[in-house]
Design goal:
Largest sheet: 4 strands, antiparallel
Structural class: mainly beta
Order of helices and strands: EEEEEEEEEEHEEEEEHEE
Distance between the termini: 74 Å
Shape: elongated
Helix content: under 10%
Length: 202
């Protein structure tokens, strides 16, 4: 039998589960779709929703193809326009295989620094002293490297410590401590190289 699965929106050609009263048909595999998951393409949890709901041009956050709004899909409650095909969201390299329904969501602190009242920052990489932002366009010598990317600071805007030679590109200083990436089903943690810094007049 050929049919369109109401749970995932994909076609099927094997015997489906059917509710004749509701004209509802689903793949056998779709009966076990997880309800709440975390994927490596998005920072928030996504929940299975049937039907997706409001009509419109829905694009899948994994394959970027259209999603049939009358079928089931995964939706982010924080980002209301972010949705995924059920099949795309549950791919092996996208989902970490952990069902999160009923599991309280822990809000992780991914901010790399705290801003002080005087405008300096307390960065998680540099303990014991605060960093000041330099926007004067001063070009530092080539030997002075960013403590994060280990590339020359050059004429880029940077943060510096008044007690040591430690400096950070402004861009590098703003990198979150944790990030989800499509190459890994698990979140990645930011790790900086272990470098010793000496006192300096920068």
């Amino acid at each position: 039998i050929s049919f369109l699965c109401d749970a995932c929106g994909a076609k099927g050609d094997q015997a489906p589960y059917v509710c004749l009263q509701c004209d509802f048909m689903v793949h056998r595999g779709c009966t076990a779709l997880p309800r709440v998951i975390h994927i490596n393409r998005h920072d928030h949890r996504v929940s299975y929703t049937y039907p997706l709901g409001r009509p419109g041009e829905w694009k899948c956050g994994v394959c970027w193809e259209d999603i049939d709004w009358s079928c089931g899909a995964y939706l982010c409650s924080t980002c209301p326009n972010y949705a995924l095909h059920s099949g795309c969201a549950t791919r092996y390299h996208v989902w970490d295989r952990i069902e999160l329904y009923g599991v309280p969501e822990e809000v992780e602190d991914t901010e790399p620094f705290k801003v002080n009242q005087d405008g300096t920052i307390a960065h998680f990489l540099h303990h014991g002293a605060d960093l000041s932002l330099n926007k004067d366009g001063i070009a530092l010598e080539k030997g002075i490297l960013c403590g994060a990317c280990v590339r020359p600071i050059g004429s880029h805007t940077f943060y510096s410590c008044s007690y040591t030679s430690f400096v950070l590109h402004e861009t590098c200083a703003n990198l979150p401590k944790k990030k989800r990436h499509f190459l890994s089903p698990k979140p990645l943690s930011l790790r900086y190289p272990n470098v010793s810094y000496v006192r300096s007049n920068i």
